[in-house]
Amino acid sequence: MSYRWTADPAGIELPDLNREFDDQAEAEAWFAENWSELAEAGATAVTLWEADRVVYGPMSLDEA
Fold this sequence. Notes:
The longest helix is centred in the middle third of the chain and has 17 residues, at 24-40. This protein has one helix spanning 24-40; strands at residues 3-8, 45-50, 53-60. By secondary structure, the chain is of the alpha+beta class. The chain has a three-stranded antiparallel sheet, covered by helices on one side. The protein starts with a strand and ends with a strand. Strand 2 (45-50) and strand 3 (53-60) form a beta hairpin. The protein has one domain. The chain is globular, with a radius of gyration of 11 Å.
């Protein structure tokens, strides 16, 4: 199975946002390195998917 992230609101553009990962740990490692860039690009929340199943989310990117 492959894992991928989606961002809210839709339409956020960030290199590798549509990338597919081989496992959940790899997807989460990418997120840990890129969450601040997602927030700066206007994302307010993200969701992690395994194929067509939501693993978790939407997860807020609000630092408060």
